[in-house]
Amino acid sequence: METLGIAWYLGVLPAGLAVALSALVIVRWRARMQWRNWEWISLVAPVAIWWALALLDIRGKSLANLIEVWVIALAVPVCVAARALIGTRVGPSVAARGMAWTLGAVAIGVYLFVPVLPE
Question: What pTM value is reported for the model?
């Protein structure tokens, strides 16, 4: 049961924060962008990508590196806001794909470029 609590804190909560903050941006600027249903997945995907890399244990991250998940969760609404701002200049499908690729690159970049933090 304790494992479920840890999984909740380290997986579901950051992804939920990303979706909740992004939903606020989407509701506020909904006139600036056309939001598609599949784009909700791209809000949760960066956290999932980071966790997949962490579970593969390529770099031997420590428990202190779990802060990276929260950084990624806060980067998601920033990317959504950027998508809303440039959404009027480019097509909606280009903006949606750009947001999804950018968020994936952020997750991979944070995992690869943040050094192993001491516990």
Answer: 0.84
